[in-house]
Amino acid sequence: MHVLKLAFANIRKTPSAALSLALLILISTLLLNIGLTVLFSLQVFYEQKVEELQEAHAGILMRQEEYQPEQLEYLSNYPGAVKALQESVLLLQSARFQYSGSELSSALMVVNAGAEREFPNPKFSERLESLSDEDIYLPYRFKVGGGYKLGDTFTLKLSDQAYSFRIAGFYESALLGNIDMGMIKFMLPERGYHELENELGEQAEATFLSVRLENSDDAPGLIADYSRQFGLDAYFGAGFFWTGDVVTVKSANTMTVNIVAMILIAFAAIIVAVSLIVIHFRIINSIDDGMVNIGILKSLGYTSREIRGSMILQFTGIAAFSGVIGLLLSYLAMPVFGGIISSLAGLLWTTKLEVPLNLASLLLILLTVLAVTRWSSRRIHKLQPVEALRGGMAAHSFRKNCFPLDQSGGSVIWMLAGKTMLGNLKQNILISLIIAAVTFASVFAVMLYYNIGSDRTAFIHLVGSETADVVVITQPGTDSRVFMEEVQAMDGVAKLTIQDILNTEVEGRRYYTQVTEDFSRLDNDTFYKGRYPKYANEIGISGAISKEIGKGIGDQVTVNVQGRSETYLITGLSQSINFLGLLVSMTTEGMEQLAPDYESSVFNVYLDHEDTKGFIAKLQGQMGNRLQSVTDLEEVFNSQSSIYTAALFSVMLLILSITAIVVILILYLVIKTMILKRRRELGIFKAIGFTTLQLMNQIALSFVPVVAAGIVLGGFMGYLLTNPLLAFLLSGVGIFNVHFSLPLSGILLLGAGMIALSYIVSVLVSYRIKHISTYELITE
Amino acid sequence: MGQPILRTEKLCKSFSSSGEQQHVLKNLDLAIGKGDFTVIMGSSGSGKSTLLYTLSGMDKPTMGDIYFGDRYLSGLSNDQLAIFRRQYCGFVFQQIHLLDHMSVLDNVLAGGLLVSKDKKALTAEAKRLLTQVGLEASSWGKFPSQMSGGEAQRAAIARALINRPQIVFADEPTGALNSATSTQVLDVLTEVHNSGQSLIMVTHDLKSALRGNRVLYLRDGVICGDLRLNHYGEEEPSIRNEKLLAFLSGMGW
To answer: Any chain B CB within 8 A of the CB of A689?
Structure first.
């Protein structure tokens, strides 16, 4: 009990220091808990959702005429398959609609909401009570990312026809609810469905095969085996096949959230480190300041264990209390992150009580606080009562008189600031390291946002997208050579390249393969090692494939298409965020060796003017019947990346705010302790004629080099290490080389802002010097 | 008495303690002569240190006026008082109060650099003063914790003199020293006084008090005795001793 009293007495002595420490622990527990919860829950989130929604683990969509009953039979008999279903749907290969303020073009699958089916059963996150024939049900992502709400009018454009619907509900779908998987599922009520079916006719009739497996992880394997079995090696634009599985969707959608979660955990670790350093110095100082009191307590019969126990209780008590509040607050903050996850995944995230993770977060922090408190207070154990009563041993070991006033240049305030700075070197090095860590995190976050949200050049380069203005897909049977010549001759066309995506089998594994006539004509060279293929016998593979098949530059690989094999030389390694980073690159000549009847049908058009819409209208007017789809690439990019931009902007703001809080808190705690400790010294300075402002400046200036050193170090690390760190974080999705950049002015601005903030905070905190009276010198 | 360098009119200083006002200095009218070595004596709690620090601008009076020459001190702000102190005053404390993390030379220069920008001349002056108070060049680079009490106090006297103050305030400068080092310190102060420097010293030590040429006796915040003596060394020590003892005895010391 007396130990508890001592602990409370210690807290009461410096309540504001206890409060600020509590705030640090609170923030770190909050971030750690959110980070851990998101990171771990996300792993099971998709599986739980798929179970909850009773969705298919894999789906295959094809034109009605391409469906054969053997396909369903194959899927039904596939090892591990629980159930396979066939459903008639409508396929809109190139539909346009508004999404988040931009017109988006995508392939759509329209299903009959009224049809009886075993699975998937739509689960509505919200739905209108009254129904009408003009209703449409959209994926939940259209609500959280697309800017739609119930009752809104949704217009679908097919060629020059427009169809308007009333949004009657939003439903969740793990497999077909996303805008960036190449296929989106819409649902219409029975009557509306049949009306559209009649209007569009046979050309829209399609079949959707869906499979549920015992283990959802087997879904990509099933798709690969199915494709091999039914020869889907042909270019998918010619005979339409779309395949998808929940594993692929999950990895594509969780990447950003995983990075955000890891940033939060890293930041929590930094703040925990700050808290531990603060605790360490507070214990050291309180032993120094309370030496006589320790002597008195020891002479009264308190054991070292009891005195140390009071300190341990004091700090672990603060940590436990604020940690629990941090945990509770994390549940208030979770909906914000849940919102980000929902908007990225198109699935409703509900915050659940995660007791084991909560306990792990709290325990982790408590144990580190306990360990540091025990370690820092070990000196008490060795102190003899008499020694403590005499104020302890003189702990001064000045090895050097830093900044000797008779020899150093500059004003006396600067020189004294230098002395103060070097006099607390150990502490200041730690402060510098903390500032370096938060600066690094800030540069990382700002760089991430700048390159994804603001100047996207490096991001586009990173994801492997080509910066064309328009992507055109031609109808099967179109003579590509004639088409290219005609488009090239159109006004405003600066360049035209082929950008086909086909399925090939490389070393027995199926991969998407991009084919173009000349890689040097592409704007975005995605090869980070070696070079792109130039000749018919050359091939490029992505880093992820290189890892999978264990082959690199200079090796030969066997490529198989429709039973025909050829050997190619690997000339370079590329990267792309698409297709999970698994992408093969070949020249058209190279592909023609495997498929002599291969005809290019996807083209990138680069314009030399801004009027993309005008060009698209002209192209459609001129080539109407030869076009399957025309996409304004920038609009697609804008609408798809807006949600990432918003998420990264939130993370950047969060990190910058926490950086500011960390800088403020650490300077507050350190300067306050310093002033308490140097009370007598500051009194002497005042006595010999220093003004309060001069002393405030002296203290503030003594921290400027410390903070500046941390900022320079952190900024430098951020500048140098952000790209390798991102490459490491993104290696799972096939990115091995990142070239994000931040204008030097941006880093300088950030650094200058942090130095200004730390100077202002230092001056404000040291204002308490005003209350130190020289009179205290005679009351000793 | 020379021209007054410091004078007070109806000087009062009170402290509030547990809601009660404690009047430490009561309506003091006092003039301190230029070039005098004024000693303030009195029993514990009589207000002598309070008087010293109020006169020096380290603390503000509750009521009344203080004039330093023609300058009116009572109305100055804390920062104005700090600037006043650096320009006109030097201080020697009982607890010495050198800055622990600075060398002896830096301790002397720290106050000096506030007034003079001529670092070279100032350093020369600091070294001259340190030599004057008997500190060898070998000790100028030492830290206070590496010096004896007497050496540290002599360094503190050098610090007090660096800005050529018009007056030096000393609060029990030998209070924390042994007899031998006390004498060394008092000799330095006497030498300083003999060079024309004005000094005010608070002490309850008879040996220290003998160095002054004026002794004020304070009781309950009121000056109740004022003894004038010749400069130290100008008369027989025994006669001086006798005069002082008689004065103090009359004060009930």
So the answer is: yes
Q: Is B48 on the interface with A (CB under 8 A)?
A: no
Q: How far apart are CA A666 and CA A431, in angstroms?
A: 8
Q: Domain range spanning residue A583?
A: 479-600
Q: Is B88 on the interface with A (CB under 8 A)?
A: no
> Helix A291-300 and helix A304-345: axis angle, to 10°?
120
Report the number of distinct structural domains present in chain B: 1
Domain residues for the domain of B152 are 4-250
Q: Nearest Cβ partner of B101 from A404, A423, A694?
A: A423
Nearest to A506 by CA among A572, A587, A566, A577: A566
Q: Report the pLDDT averaged over residues A230-250.
A: 68
CATH classification of the domain holding B133 = 3.40.50.300
Within B6-148, where are the H helices?
48-55, 78-88, 104-115, 119-132
DSSP string, A64-98: GGG--HHHHHHHHTSTTEEEEEEEEEEEEEEEEEE
Quote the number of domains for chain A: 3
State the ipTM, two decimals: 0.82
Instruction: Check whether residue A681 and residue A567 sit in a common domain.
Output: no
- Distance, in Å, from the CA atom of A695 to the CA atom of A769, rounded to the nearest integer, reads 8
**The pLDDT of residue A423:** 80
Nearest Cα residue to A46 out of A461, A347, A431, A411:
A347
Q: Does pTM surpass 0.90?
A: no
Residue B70: C-alpha distances to residues B7, B73, B152 (Å): 10, 9, 34
For A124, half-sphere exposure in the C-beta direction (CA atoms, 13 angstrom radius) is 15
- Torsion angle, CA of A583/A588/A590/A591, rounded to 10 degrees? 70
Within this chain, do residues A97 and A183 fall inside the same structural domain, yes or no?
yes
pLDDT for position A776: 65
Could you tell me which of B52, B66, B72, B157 has the C-alpha nearest to residue B111? B157
Does some domain include residue A565?
Answer: yes
- What pLDDT band is residue A236 in, cutting at 50, 70 and 90? very low
Phi, psi of A277 (to 5 degrees): -65, -45
CB atoms within 10 A of CB B121: 11
**Contact (CB, 8 A) for B172 and B204:** yes
Is A52 a domain residue?
no
Q: How do beta strands A500-506 and A493-498 pair?
A: unpaired
- Asked if residue A704 is part of any domain, the answer here is yes
Mutation target for A interface from B78, B102, B200: give the one with most A CBs within 10 A. B102
User: Are A699 and A731 in a shared domain?
Assistant: yes
The mean pLDDT value of chain A amounts to: 84
What is the reported pLDDT for A561? 84
The residues that bridge with B214 in the sheet, in sequence order, are: B38, B228
Question: What CATH number does residue A556 fall under?
Answer: 2.40.40
Interchain contact A412–B (C-beta under 8 A) = yes
pLDDT of residue A391: 64
Give, for A473, the enclosing helix (H) or strand (E). Answer: strand A470-474
Q: A32, A272 in Cβ contact below 8 A? A: yes
Torsional sign, CA A177, A178, A183, A189? positive
Hey, what are A435's tokens?
């500032």
Does A430 lie in the same domain as A537? no
The torsion angle over the Cα atoms of residues A382, A388, A391 and A393, rounded to 10 degrees, is -30
Q: Are residues A578 and A716 in the same domain?
A: no
Distance from CA of B31 to the nearest CA of A (A): 23
Residue B2, pLDDT score = 67
What CA–CA distances, in Å, run from A104 to A111, A639, B55, B92?
Answer: 20, 7, 83, 83
Q: Is the Cβ of B103 closer than 8 Å to some Cβ of chain A?
A: yes
> Per-residue confidence at A778, pLDDT binned at 50, 70, 90?
low
Q: How confident is the model at residue A395 (pLDDT cuts 50, 70, 90)?
A: very low
Q: 3-state DSSP call for residue B14?
A: strand
